[in-house]
Design brief:
The complex is a heterodimer. By secondary structure, chain A is mainly alpha-helical. Chain A contains twelve helices and no strands. In chain A, helix 3 runs antiparallel to helix 6, helix 3 packs across helix 11 and helix 7 runs antiparallel to helix 11. Chain A is globular and about 60 Å long. In chain A, 44% of the residues are buried. Chain B is mainly alpha-helical. Chain B is built from 13 helices and no strands. The radius of gyration of chain B is 19 Å and the shape is globular. The chains are: A mainly alpha, B mainly alpha. At the A-B interface, helix 2 and helix 8 of A face helix 2 and helix 10 of B.
């Protein structure tokens, strides 16, 4: 276990160095991730009855989006298409370490480069967070980060079967946008959409940590949210392992 | 136009060879548009008006956005996706050697005909929105909408090519994602944004001319000053981009030099 942690740390460090030359591109990724929550913010600021906390909620959503952004359809799927996955298969380590390290490195850069944008939005909308609520949201952010990685990585493995991986991942992105809390906070969704969104994994990837940070949830809602997040993390973990095992059987590369 | 037609015909024949991809693209376009319509529905379940726009007017705007984005994805995006990369690695040489306008060849030669599905679905949403409003637009309003939509497409082309042309000066600069993010702001009327952002989205990156004004023209009737402003903006942006391209080409040294 200690060896795996060390390998992951090394991979993250290697990727941080690798991505340091692309800081301008990373800034555009930050803006790309923030635009959907910003749109939601602008819309709901015009809706009477959206609540006084709407600014804080969407700022939290922007932060969660930056901390959980996943681009495996560009990184990992391209490695499948180009045959680079073959090199990873030859290394004496779990194949997930490469994509995981790159994912975490990109997120760290995005959080760092996103600080000015977050500060600007915070000043513009006037936000307030209780330290205890932020503390309660921290485990949910970690679960959201794991969930989103597993979700996008699993979808990116569609590259083993089809060349339309971007369409597959974009489909997942639409679900996160609509049911995850970006288009509207869960509490403002009409029934039965609200209940459906609470049961599916997408809210756990974005809106649930933001709701916790704002402190709008009751203890029962918090417990239910955490239970759903953990359930879906386990399910998507199994899906990722299953997709990898099935996909790698189909995989062939130059010379294979 | 003949060049454009030939390129489209070739792309269409290539695309129709892969029926599964057609299914994927059509399904994704449908899901994305359904999500946009659902997002409008969620907002209007809580309010009757959004910054002065009713649900029907918003649907006309969402449909217009899908229509123009579909045209962009069909005729521009396949060429523009790696334009900066082509400038960087010297592949632009191919277009410079051909006896036609290099900017047109480099930015409109490749097409993705299957993305037209999005435009067709967009027209469906516009009709649905007009039905909700119980409005039959006059031929003048439809004409104004068409002119504004094409101007929006021209602005989309000009801003994309303009940003990609910066690669002549800064080869590592890749602003495609930034352009995509700014384009997304056209999903809603510019009236929802604050004063400064609204001005920015009217004159600096005229998203207003891309979706807000066409939808306004269709649902509230044509306005000559809006039409003229949009055409003027489109012309200025296109002229600026062509100038930038020409200046950039002077700096371009190609792959082999």
């Amino acid at each position: 276990m200690r060896r795996i942690v060390r390998l992951v740390r090394l991979e993250i460090w290697r990727q941080i160095i690798g991505w340091s030359g692309a800081w301008w591109f990373l800034v555009t990724l930050v803006i790309g991730q923030a635009v959907a929550p910003l749109l939601g913010l602008f819309v709901w600021l015009h809706v009477p009855g959206a609540g006084a906390q709407i600014g804080s909620y969407y700022l939290a959503v922007i932060c969660v989006a930056l901390m959980t952004a996943s681009f495996e359809n560009h990184t990992f799927a391209q490695a499948i298409y180009s045959g680079e996955v073959a090199a990873a298969l030859l290394r004496p380590q779990a194949p997930v370490i490469g994509p995981l390290g790159e994912n975490v490195a990109i997120r760290l850069w995005m959080v760092l480069l996103g600080i000015p944008l977050v500060a600007l939005v915070a000043v513009a909308v006037g936000v307030s967070f209780a330290p205890l609520a932020l503390l309660a949201a921290l485990p949910a952010v970690i679960l959201a980060a794991a969930l989103r990685f597993l979700f996008v990585w699993t979808l990116a493995m569609a590259a083993f079967w089809t060349e339309r991986v971007h369409a597959v991942v974009a489909f997942g992105g639409v679900l996160i946008l609509l049911l995850g809390g970006s288009a509207a906070p869960n509490a403002l969704l009409p029934d039965p959409l609200r209940t459906i969104a609470q049961l599916l994994p997408f809210r756990s990837m974005l809106g649930f940590p933001a709701e916790l940070a704002v402190g709008t949830l009751t203890s029962a809602d918090m417990a239910a949210g955490y239970a759903i997040s953990m359930f879906w993390t386990a399910v998507l973990g199994c899906c990722a392992i299953g997709a990898w095992r099935l996909g790698i059987r189909r995989y062939s590369t130059v010379g294979a | 136009m003949r060049l454009l037609g030939t390129a489209f015909s070739l792309s269409l024949r290539r695309a129709l060879a892969y029926r599964t991809n057609l299914f994927f693209d059509a399904l994704l376009a449908l899901v994305e548009l359904a999500a946009s319509v659902a997002a409008v529905g969620i907002v209007f379940a809580r309010t009757g008006l959004l910054a002065g726009w009713s649900a029907g007017q918003m649907l006309a705007l969402v449909g217009t956005f899908a229509f123009i984005t579909g045209l962009r994805a069909t005729f521009l995006d396949p060429s523009l996706a790696d334009l900066s990369q082509q400038i960087r690695d010297g592949r632009l040489d191919t277009y410079l050697l051909q006896p036609a306008s290099s900017v047109l060849l480099a930015t409109t030669a490749r097409h993705a005909p299957l993305a037209l599905v999005q435009s067709l679905l967009g027209i469906g949403v516009i009709i649905f929105g007009l039905h909700e409003l119980a409005v039959v637009p006059s031929p003048l309003a439809v004409g104004g909408w068409a002119v504004l939509a094409l101007t929006g497409l021209l602005i989309g082309w000009a801003t994309s090519v303009g940003l990609a042309s910066l690669a002549f000066w800064a080869p590592r600069l890749s602003l495609g994602v930034l352009h995509g993010a700014a384009w997304e702001l056209g999903r809603y009327p510019v009236d929802i944004y604050g004063r400064w952002l609204r001005r920015l989205l009217t004159f600096a990156f005229p998203v207003a001319a891309v979706t807000t004004w066409p939808a306004q023209t269709l649902t509230r009737g044509p306005d000559l000053s809006t039409l003229l402003t949009a055409v003027l903006l489109g012309s200025v942006f296109a002229a600026g981009t062509l100038l930038l391209w020409r200046r950039g080409l002077r700096r371009y040294t190609g792959a082999t030099s």
